[in-house]
Amino acid sequence: MQNNNLKNLTGINISKLNSYIDFEKIKKRNIDIVYIKATEGHVYIDPCFEINALNANKSSLLVGFYHVFRPSTEELAFKQARHFVNTIKNYPCDCKVALNIENASNLTSSKITTLCNIFLNEIKNLSNLDGVIYTTTNFIERNLKKSLSMYPLWVIQETNRSFIDNGIWNSWIGYQYFDKKVIDGLTGHAYLSDFTSEILLS
């Protein structure tokens, strides 16, 4: 896994846990990208999604959206993809859409990998948006197969150790640090990520 000297963008990810957000203040803290939680599973929409999406775009920050995946059946993988696309389709998106997968639901690694592929393929078919896998090194090692390497990786660092090879990806386009930060303009704490320019859709 490459070192983080390739980063040229800094980002945060937000959700309802950050109930008050002043995007202008965030931008002044040298944040370039804000990833907004849109959906989880096949019915849930983050209650702060709409206001976050509107205000983030007004601030001229680069915006991305992520979906928290709940692996179950192939049918529900398709439903989750449609739910995600229907939620974000009316909002400008600058970054690859992120599939956040950290829950195995007691499924095999082959099954989880199949479901992730279904989700990301369906996202592409429905919206023509490219996707990125957003997960931890530990989850990759335990639950994912190499067929997902066709998608880029946004890796969540779980400790303060240096970068760790995971057996599938030997590079990343996003690297999230394990420790939360207090950021002016944001209620609660946030995780900071380093991104390369490959996180952008264009």
TrEMBL record:
<comment type="similarity">
    <text>Belongs to the glycosyl hydrolase 25 family.</text>
</comment>
<protein>
    <recommendedName>
        <fullName>Lysozyme</fullName>
    </recommendedName>
</protein>
<dbReference type="Pfam" id="PF01183">
    <property type="entry name" value="Glyco_hydro_25"/>
</dbReference>
<dbReference type="GO" id="GO:0016998">
    <property type="term" value="P:cell wall macromolecule catabolic process"/>
</dbReference>
<dbReference type="InterPro" id="IPR017853">
    <property type="entry name" value="GH"/>
</dbReference>
<dbReference type="GO" id="GO:0016052">
    <property type="term" value="P:carbohydrate catabolic process"/>
</dbReference>
<dbReference type="GO" id="GO:0009253">
    <property type="term" value="P:peptidoglycan catabolic process"/>
</dbReference>
<dbReference type="GO" id="GO:0003796">
    <property type="term" value="F:lysozyme activity"/>
</dbReference>
<dbReference type="InterPro" id="IPR002053">
    <property type="entry name" value="Glyco_hydro_25"/>
</dbReference>
<keyword id="KW-0378">Hydrolase</keyword>
<dbReference type="InterPro" id="IPR018077">
    <property type="entry name" value="Glyco_hydro_fam25_subgr"/>
</dbReference>
<keyword id="KW-0326">Glycosidase</keyword>
